[in-house]
Amino acid sequence: MRKLGVLTSGGDAPGMNAAIRAVVRYGIYHNINVVGIRNGFEGLVEGDHLEMNLSSVADIIHRGGTILGSARSKEFMEEDGFQKALRNIKYLGIEGMVVIGGNGSFKGAMKLEKAGVSTVCIPGTIDNDLPYTRYTLGFFTALTTVLESVEKIRDTSSSHNRSNVIEVMGRDCGDIALYAGLAGGAEMVIIPEIEYNIDEVSDKIMQGRTRGKKHSIIILAEGAGDAKEISEQIEKKTGIITRYSILGYTQRGGAPAAYDRLIGSQMGAYAVKLLSENQRNKAVGINGGGIFEMNLDEAIAVEKKFDERTYELTKILSI
Ligand code: F6P
Known about the structure:
Blueprint: E1 3-8, H1 16-29, E2 33-37, H2 40-46, E3 49-52, H3 74-77, H4 79-92, E4 96-101, H5 103-114, E5 118-123, H6 139-160, E6 163-168, H7 175-184, E7 188-190, H8 198-210, E8 216-221, H9 227-238, E9 242-246, H10 258-276, E10 282-287, E11 290-295, H11 296-301, H12 308-317
């Protein structure tokens, strides 16, 4: 392996920069040149790139976002755009690609792999919706950000004896809501994996009130219901003033948590190691045993197992 390319694709996630830094520095240390592709697969189609050196990745490990830029590229998924991307890879002399992103990005990477480009993926998304790996890059930072907001909103909830519905991101995956619910002591979480029952939510709030609770925090995952509608229903059923907040893009940015910097660095180096050993079609992940790899097509096919235990525990602990 003489030259590899690296790109970040899909929604940006804290820790992506740590992974880029590791790819570049680990590569250069092993005499591999690294080309950075700007704006995800769009940059591959357009040939938008920069030759990376040690200084290109200086002072970025602690920064949110991605220095390479990111995009969701339609053109790359179409035949003309894809052929342009392949021509650019050849022209640039790229012998392997590291793709950092979420499930859409993994599918793009699979297209490259099938066309003969050696590709290794790193899971980078706040959603934690790639079930082959225990955690994705950015998930812990997003959780920390959510918890900071939950705590602020709880102060106001207690001061005014209100209920508050807080909508968090996650696309079709309830992990941010579920883990923020457990770690933030929420009264209830509403997630896409479990159909909610408004009577159950309202009863839970009333139970808390009966034993003197001054606040009620309901964490709602996007994709599980409408924040405005749910808060109106709660207010109607409980008679308690209920407000809602949608945290939105505040969850995507910000300095990466220590964990995301660590696994970003480890996964970046591991991806380069795999490519340098002529391994291909791989997804890097983390589990109880540390960093591991599995075949990309198998990783994409792993189905989500709902974390029933965490859900039940969140309910039990919020009685
Ligand atoms: O995948 C990350 C994510 O932030 C999701 O949680 C959310 O549904 C989506 O991206 C928003 O996408 P966009 O950046 O295209 O608005």
